[in-house]
């Protein structure tokens, strides 16, 4: 339900306009240095009001650690982190109390639960992802100790697209532009596109790509909890995501086996490597030591500033008017969320991989 | 690990060339009529040797129910089903005992576990999916009582593709051709392509689409266990799958919000419906009563009949020779697997949805 | 780990002297009226400083609901509740920073985690049970709607013991005396005993009994999650508990089958009942509609005001001096905790029982 | 439901008179030597027909490994084990098709599921424990590699009782007598008592004690999954169990803190030990390196050969006649079951303890 993971396990809570949102991490090993600043840095990459192409809401999203850290060190007990809500213009939402916004979760929550906190989308608000980013920051900090790092970036906005071969991109550019794109020229085009969309009171979709480096071979479980299946589920659980692919992805379906197969070889250091990486770093659901690579498709944000036809809870026709302060394109702020979710999955499987072999246990 | 589901829960076991494969279903409600024939029918759609474009292995895949059914009725206790292995040409695999086949799981299992049953890929063999189809048959039988039905089909093989608008397809055609395509003309082209690929000792990928009808609004859980996230994970857990998308999918990222949003209206029967279905039947992770629609990308089968360069466990260069009897394209036999996995996810969430509202519990 | 339950699921967090303790409930049905007052009432039964025979610490244990309740009604989303810590005399604990208090968790946490928050026992403090009582209050409120009620009481302190046949006890007395005993005379003796023990700077153990009324037949799962096994685990998870028995319990082992078996009969209302209740309301792990009855054994509190020999982290001999404000006997304050844990287990199984039969689902 | 454990996880299936019973172990580390003989040895300790004081049913209980073992070694994939049913005198049970045997699960299964396999008690039969013993044999084999061993024994039958201080008992006697008692003289008395009870067509209860040696400090999880809570649940899940206590248990409630506390000291080898072991090897829910010690109370077997009053499904009075071949006292055969359940819990927590500390992971 609101829990993810088997060993490194997170549970989130909170509504957009309630008292607070938060997350409890259960299963983080003891002895990891951790401070609120480590987490705040990641939250600042996600928070609203960063630039002209994101929502203008001003939320500080200041995190507080309630438990699980003592004298700057994790203790192995649950790490609970809370972000109090502020700058809530709940009245912006009174008009949708009895209306179902198109392609939002208003209607489905209404049917499922009978009651709902309609303010700002309540639990279905993307605000909930702040809790994930906080938890992901802990996972990242943990995995850094194992030499594992995460880099997501915006690879497509509308029809503007960077090179599919990420070795040709300059990752140092990513945090240098407000759209988080590793191609400076494409970044400018994307910003311009999003800004135009915004002026037209509309929204646009995009794609976030992610590269994970340093994952040792052996992570992921056979059958249902394959590493890419768990990554896929985690990504698909982010608001507005419509698709996931890894390695060669959908394009790979058009290839022949003789083209698609990744030949093994031994490198000069004696490591077994693959010559190509159509597998995206995962074979049979288990990491093979190559870079893990995947893409996540985000639909255009459902909240637009244009009037739309809809119905109310009684089935009467209603006009939904766009109000509030929203993102014209979600992908720039989705970059840290994708990284966070990836880190949570990898942290869980990194720990799970530690109990696979008797010869490594005694 | 080898378990899927929260309430309707399955656990599979078995290696390709071991004594048997099987599955235990825990959580199927009592009082469902069930026979081995019900399950065998689905298994027959998946089994090898069906046609010239599938592997020529001859396995009867005969299922036996070991428990959980009494006098033709489920009793609420675990339903265990077993398929004994036969026609195992284990010697076909002795050559790969110490070799890693490219883009197979040989290497990753070797690193993860230290030991592995190399015969036929052992646990990583797609043979394991027979157990899923058996379990899925039970889920289908259960959901049929609730008016929910599943129809998957081959929508793409290589570059041959049917209409994206499934309302224009003739689903009655699907089981009429050996490729399981709802467009008879495209089916012929696909069969020809696959047959050519086979003659060239190569393989090709493809896409399976799936439509689920009759799902009531309210299935799926907020946050991590969103219905499409669970479907995505289930699909990505099938051998050879590289991507998943639902509703508008990756194409939807190029749309504007004003184009993508699905307007609500009330139909003549008083039901709240959407005018379009870019949402693919799921909003905020919860079903909205429209058809659920998604696509699954399958890579070309990794086993080809062409020699390939690789390494052995010691890192020495080795030539992997294609032997055995394999599928030139996996999608025709993947159709019942996709349906089975979808049925397992929907069955679980159908049961989970029964405990959401106090007014429906007392 | 820090999570209990399958459908009605709770996760707790927090250390005795950290910023706060709390709990997140996931899976509470929507539509239940709930206020902070409902929860506070139960917390007040558990909080320190109630009487001369409990610890003199003064903690208000004021609960705040952070999420999951909107306009006085649960919404089906996670209910997060937080109690901020106060009146922490952390300096009372500086002397045990490097010492292991006998029969406390200091040593085992030290070995397990390497680091620990030693103040007030950190996570191992019984203070953590406040979070359980808060969650249990919600479970009780839910189950009251189904006519299920919980009554625990102190049945033994040291060698003072009430009648084993609870039909002979006056439950209205329980909250009338500070030891929570349903026999006023025995209550006086218990208070006197505890007060003497306290004056001697020592502690004493006791037994809490619990009766659950109104549980319908059919709750509990075959095999591992039998209702009494789940109740047993929940009770054994409370600090200081050393044993659990239900129905005839340990005494029942001395009986013959012909004496122990509970004969079925049909009562005047047409209900199937049992003439005796050695089964304690549970047969084959499943409730049979009779009262559920069990006992929980609490050891004497480990913190005594008498000097004790021990060792420090380096293995050197150390004298542990009793400091701080502690309970001379834990059972009076354990009564609401036992009820809370029972309510959490029953709530979970009440929901699980709703998906057992197809004829009740369609 | 039918699954136990978090990492070392088992799922059982099967009815007493169905085709087979069995178990799938998921999460056993790869590289453990394992054969059917290893498992059969444990099953032979549990099987019926061993002696004059057990049921005279003759079941070979021959186990077959279906998966997860390759060339005598576990591979990390699910280990599925099956025992085919035989010597089923199902007709012995036709008389109870519509009757509820007193203190059996007939009535509760009837209410919970609507349908049930009444033959031999179906799923509620103690026959199911054979699957647990098979799984426990694997857990024991695994833990033997870590130096952990299990010894259960019959400590009480009716009013005949061995010394509570197990250091005074001779464990080498346990398998030397048919009641599995470590006191030869008491064993004779127990056998005589059981034989008399049997002749009177009645049954009697008893207590099984268990000592686990070699468990390192640090196993068990804070809060809900305390090691003794998990052991308690596992024991309470065995058929006919009515109570569980560890260390000082119920008697400990009568002690003062100053008597009960276990003083720490450093032994000559430099290990931190406790002078007494009222804690039963577990403090704060976590093992402290001392022997783990607990007791399990078994009620008298419900099936007696004496006529009993009951009702049928329609509520009519019915006389239940004792038929079939049953145990007059369950404890001798329960000894290997208690050991098996203990081994399953310890195996799970042994693996869980491997991911607690960052300094042991990198």
Strand and helix layout:
4 copies of one chain form a homotetramer.
Chain A lengths: L2 E2 L4 E6 L5 E7 L9 H11 L16 E3 L3 E2 L2 E2 L4 E6 L21 H8 L15 H16 L4 E9 L2 E2 L22 H16 L6 E8 L13 H10 L4 E6 L10 H4 L3 E3 L5 E3 L7 E2 L2 E2 L4 E7 L9 E4 L5 E4 L10 H22 L10
Antiparallel strand pairs in A: 1-2, 2-3, 3-7, 4-7, 5-6, 8-9, 8-10, 10-16, 11-16, 12-13, 14-15, 17-18
Structure in a nutshell:
The structure is a homotetramer of 362-residue chains. Chain A has 362 residues and is an alpha+beta fold.
Task: For this entry, give a set of tags.
homotetramer, 362 residues, alpha+beta, Chorismate synthase, AroC fold, five-stranded antiparallel sheet, 7 helices, 18 strands, globular
